[in-house]
Amino acid sequence: MWLGVVTIFPDLVKAMFKEGVVGRAIERGDISFETINPRDYPLNSYGSVDDRPFGGGPGMVLAAEPLAACVQAARERVRPRTLKTALLSPQGTRFSQSLATKLSQLDALLLVAGRYEGVDERFITNYVDLEISIGDYVLSGGELAASVVVDVIGRYIEGTVNNPESIECESFTDDLLDCPQYTRPRVFEGVEVPEVLLSGDHRAVERWRHQQRIEKTWKRRPDLLVQRVNKETESAELRDCVLNAQPANLETVEEESLCEITK
Length: 263
Ligand code: SAM
Prior knowledge:
alpha/beta, Alpha/beta knot, Trp Operon Repressor, Chain A, 5-stranded parallel β-sheet, two-stranded antiparallel ribbon, 11 helices, 9 strands, elongated, binds S-adenosylmethionine
């Protein structure tokens, strides 16, 4: 897959992929990764890529022309493959594991990192296929968000993760959170590793892990578990149990975790 990032700060994004599994996949050539800088297509001889907003107001806006030129350059580079373009924006579709798996099926994806007050709306209308938000907060620029998207998509590209099993069973796969993990020593500060993990009984270990995933998800993300049982993935017994329970109150779950951290 070809992944590109349009950014006025290419070093910020490149630094993220100097190490780690995605960085190694880029180095091996399993992922083709490039950055494209709007400053290579400036508005004037001073190298400007932004301008004041029409109508007044604070800050600057990234102009449409340099961004459009970056998309055209990316189309040239990936030809004959089809390029899809996504703008990182707090106003976009919320990024998720399932969106990442869908995007990882594309041949070529260009991510556009905004800056300042944002980007000229006409660039979005004419060149952007999808806007992606990584959460309900405002970052100072799209580089971190683009790096998050590259990292998550990168893990789904064949060859990136050494053991494919590790992405088949982790948080959000099958609408469940992951189970607790343990390594040596057997006792740490008086806390023992659960007995079943030392039993050598693989079926018992699997049963325990599945149960732990369900319990953890119910406690922390009841919305996911409701989604799971609605897909009829679980036994009728668990389905009845979840659907007959008090309506999942996410606010309470969030408030409880905030209480823990501010104690
Ligand atoms: N004025 C914009 C608004 O309120 O929607 C925010 C602009 S923000 C300071 C600058 C850039 O950071 C955005 O154009 C976008 O590329 C990126 N950005 C900020 N928050 C983001 C988020 N939650 N998800 C994805 N990108 C984000």
